[in-house]
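Same chain as my last thread, 138 residues:
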Amino acid sequence: MAGMISMAIMLHVGSIFLILLLLLLLVWHFSKEQEFKPFSIKYEQLSLFYKATLGSLFFTGLVVMAVAKFDVLWTVYVMVLVVLHMIVTTVKEHLAYKLTHIKDALSQETFKAYAKRKYIIDLVLIVILSAVTYAVSL
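reply #2:
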C-alpha cells in the first residue's frame, strides 16, 4: 500500500512540475510581440498541452485521494478548489479566444491581456499552494 501511495504522489508531483513548465512557456509566449496568426498557431499547441496536463493533474490528485482512502488534510480541499478555479478560467479563456477575430486588433490585444493575466494567476496559485503544502507536510 505504501508503494502505491508513493507512486501516486510521484505522478501528481510530476504533473505539477509539467504544468508549471507549461505555464512559464505560455506566459513567455504571451509576452512576445508577434502577429496574431503565428501567435494563435503556437498558442493552440501550447494550450492543448496545458489542458491535457490540467486534466492529468486533476486525475492524479483523485488517484492520490483514493489511494489515501479520502483521509485528507485541509490542503487537499484547497488544491481541489485551485484546480477547479483553473478549469473554470480555462473554459472562459477558450471562449474568449473563440470570440477573438483575426482582423480585429482590439479584440486580439484584449484576449492576450486576459489570457496572460490568467496564466500568471494560475502560476502564482500553484507556486503558493505547493509551498504551503510542503510547509504543512514538514
